[in-house]
Amino acid sequence: MEIVVCVKPVPEAESRLRANASGTAPDTDGVKFVLAGYDESAVEQALLLRQAVPGSKVHAVSLGPPSRTDEVLRAALALGSDSATAAESDAPPMADPIATARGLATAIAARGPCDLLLFGKQAGDDEEGLVGGATAEALGLPFVGFVVDLRFDAAASRLRFRRSVERGEESWESPLPLAVGLQQAWNDPRTATLPAILRSRKAPLARHAAGPGAAVAAASVAERFALPPPRQGAKMIAYRDPQQAASQLVRLLREEAKVFP
Amino acid sequence: MVDFSLSPEAESLRDLARKFARTEMAPHAAECDRTPRFPEEIYRKAHALGLMNLNVPSEYGGSGLGLFDQCLIVEELAYACAGMTTSIIANCLALEPILLGGTPEQRSRFLSPFCASYQLASFCLTEPSGGSDAGALRTRARRDGDAYVLDGEKCFITNAPHAGLYTVFATVDPTLRHRGVTAFVVPRSAEGITPGKDEEKMGHRASSTSTVRFDKVRVPVSDRLLADGEGFGLAMRTLDQTRTPIGALATGIGQAALDHAARYALKRETFGKPIAEHQAIQIKLANMTQAVRAARLLTWQAAWTIDRGEKGTLESSVAKCFASDAALLVADEAIQTFGGYGYMKEYPVEKLLRDAKLTQIYEGANEIQRTVIARELLRGYA
Ligand SMILES: Cc1cc2nc3c(=O)[nH]c(=O)nc-3n(C[C@H](O)[C@H](O)[C@H](O)COP(=O)(O)OP(=O)(O)OC[C@H]3O[C@@H](n4cnc5c(N)ncnc54)[C@H](O)[C@@H]3O)c2cc1C
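Structure tokens for the assembled complex are given below, as produced in the milestone run.
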């Protein structure tokens, strides 16, 4: 089974984002882009499937300029991906999801066969969760989202999985090829070992221009990017004595927040 | 042109160590210090990730890192817990003599099976009668046919009760002083080895330290490193390699102390404002920042010098000595910044002071480092 996992470079969780000079996108200067948790889970799922289905291969694909994609692809290689492909694009981070999907689809098609296309639940930065479905559409693949517990039934040559839905779960099976969006991190992604990290530094990265798909005018253009205003009204209770702090908290909840009479 | 930026590869190694330190080590640091406890499950995980035998080339199953990359990793680990770090990097110290002095046959015979699974090794140089004067060893190695018989006692040996392999320095003739010192590789399974009980220590309490007795331990000649009398030079060349990571370990302690102090200073209010706004505290934080950054740069420079193939004796002594003194100073000032809370075990900074103290003592006490620095310095003026 040829498994392709799309991995998105997202700003490191601790980074302090600012708007760029034109106020339309985050300023990426000095920001470190990493493989985010949801996508780590997707890579983990791919590796588990590869282990279960002999002869399978895992291919990581990421879209963006090399300054953002390469570290993320190397992280996917260090975790165990067999190959890594950069869909080169100079789109800003958190760009239009349809343009991203077209760019990814071009690179995925150019890379080679794909039986299963995996996506994390959503990106760790804009949390839109749109690229998976749109990429599947661009490649003409059926798409199922919110999937957990993906298994391959070799005898029937079908994927079996469950899907979280409101108030319950559905059990599904499907032939390949298929695109799957995973439910949030339900597996426990492995940590890349030091030797694997060193090997990943020397592995080649395949590169495909993400165009012309991505070059097609994006369906949406960001007009303004701004940080939310700093939160107001939070009050810290500095304390030494927990009892005194608790009574102060109760007084504030009663008199200022008026949570209870 | 000198360049202080990290390569993407170095960054990814540092990130691995940082993640391991913060998720696997830090949550257990206080408990292992208090109890004390030797958290072997953490050391096993460190081994599984390749964070243990950092200096051993990959052909023997180690990580094959240069000193600079080792230092990046050690600083991150020590940031979370210096004691655990001492136990994790003790293998590097114990295996270095085999790397430097072993024949290719000895290297693959000892290192490959050792590194293949989780195992600890101990470096046995110090004796109850003295550590600094390593030429005055009393542990005897008497030749008997195609073997040596070791007799004597070592003390303050890191990981000794848990180790599967010991590198032991003994003398074939005490009257020869350092020219009699000879090095051996001894498996724990050899008859006559008795590690003592864990010492109660001031700091590094997640690490284990004990005596080791050798009673008529037979070691085949094939397990001797180099020739009779070449052990002293081998020990010194080993310490030339491993001193610099102690600078990194001390830097990690210092950085942790600085981070705690700066965060606390922004939160704690006296006289109507955060103590970070009192100039006396600002001066402390500024001095601590200088000390930690200088410690890191001296450590980097020593590692870089040695990675270039130079001996780096002066550089590594300067780095170890400065960084350990800096760690003590910074931990002390962090406690002062915390005031009374800093003195309480409930807060993390008093541990840092206790941990920092050891870095001035082991792997060559700072008095000895200063002797070395002066000697190397004056050589250039003579
Ligand atoms: C927790 C811990 C772990 C250790 N782990 C190991 C290990 O794994 N393997 C190992 O072999 N050793 C280990 N050691 C031993 C350590 O390296 C020695 O303690 C150190 O070398 C000092 O030796 P000493 O304690 O005998 O002090 P001494 O040599 O007796 O020195 C006492 C004092 O005199 C000073 N001094 C000595 N000679 C001179 C001189 N010529 N000029 C000026 N001042 C001098 C010293 O600096 C020191 O301040 C460890 C020690 C500790 C505490």
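Chain B has a mean pLDDT of 97. The two ends of chain B are 30 Å apart (CA to CA). Further analysis is deferred to the final report.
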